[in-house]
C-alpha cells in the first residue's frame, strides 16, 4: 500500500540548486512527472525511502508519485515540523490547481548587486498589480511577524489560566 503524503500548503517546485535552501540527503531531486522528494525528518518518522510509491494528498485529490529522494531544509531536517514535499514545477501547479499561476519566485543576484537594487530592478520589470516584491530580509521579517501574530493570543490564554490557577489555589 502506498503512503499518503499531505501536501497542502507545503509542496514546492525544486528550484535551481544554487539558490535552493534545501540540501539533498539521499537520492536526487525530482526531475520528471510524478516524482517527489520529502524532508528527512518526515522520511525517517514514516520510514520512507527512495523508490517507494506514494500518494500526494491535495485539495484536488490523491496523486500517485514515486519518492526519489530526501532533503534537509536549510540546516534542519524540516521546517518547524511542517511536512515538506518537493516536486516538479508542472506537478506542483497541477496538484495544487494552480495551472498558469506562480505563488513565489526566488531570485539571486551576482555578488556585486545589493538586495535593494535587485528588488528595484525586478519591480521596474513587472506589473505592479497584486505583486509583493521583497528582499530576503523583508520576507523573513514578514513571515516572523505573521507567526508571532498568529500565536500572540497564547500569552492571553496562558495568563487567564494562570489567574484561574491562583484563584483556585487560594481556596
Index terms:
171 residues, alpha/beta, seven-stranded mixed sheet, 5 helices, extended
Percent strand: 15-25%
> Overall pLDDT, averaged?
78
Radius of gyration: 20 Å
Shape descriptor reads extended
How would you portray this structure in words?
The protein is of the alpha/beta class and 171 residues long. 34% of the residues lie in helices and 23% in strands. It has 5 helices and 7 strands. Strands 1, 2, 3, 4, 5, 6 and 7 form a 7-stranded mixed beta sheet that branches. A hairpin with a 2-residue loop joins strand 5 and strand 6. It is extended. The model has no long low-confidence stretch (mean pLDDT 78).
Task: Lay out the secondary structure.
Layout: E1 3-6, E2 11-13, E3 22-27, E4 35-39, H1 40-46, E5 53-58, E6 61-73, E7 85-87, H2 89-95, H3 115-125, H4 136-151, H5 153-169
Parallel strand pairs: 1-5, 2-7, 4-6
Antiparallel strand pairs: 3-6, 4-7, 5-6
Amino acid at each position: 500500500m502506498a503512503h499518503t503524503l499531505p501536501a497542502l500548503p507545503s509542496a514546492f517546485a525544486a528550484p535551481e540548486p544554487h539558490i535552493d535552501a534545501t540540501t539533498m540527503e539521499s537520492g536526487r531531486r525530482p526531475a520528471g512527472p510524478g516524482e517527489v522528494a520529502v524532508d528527512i525528518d518526515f522520511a525517517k518518522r514514516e520510514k520512507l525511502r527512495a523508490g517507494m510509491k506514494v500518494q500526494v494528498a491535495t485539495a484536488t485529490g490523491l496523486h500517485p508519485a514515486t519518492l526519489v529522494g530526501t532533503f534537509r531544509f536549510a540546516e534542519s531536517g524540516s521546517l518547524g515540523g511542517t511536512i515538506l514535499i518537493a516536486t516538479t514545477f508542472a506537478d506542483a501547479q497541477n496538484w495544487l490547481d494552480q495551472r498558469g499561476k506562480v505563488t513565489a519566485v526566488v531570485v539571486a543576484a551576482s555578488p556585486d548587486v545589493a538586495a535593494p537594487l535587485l528588488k528595484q530592478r525586478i519591480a521596474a520589470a513587472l506589473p505592479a498589480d497584486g505583486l509583493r516584491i521583497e528582499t530576503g530580509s523583508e520576507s523573513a521579517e514578514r513571515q516572523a511577524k505573521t507567526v508571532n501574530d498568529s500565536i500572540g493570543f497564547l500569552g492571553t490564554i496562558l495568563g487567564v489560566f494562570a489567574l484561574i490557577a491562583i484563584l483556585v489555589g487560594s481556596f
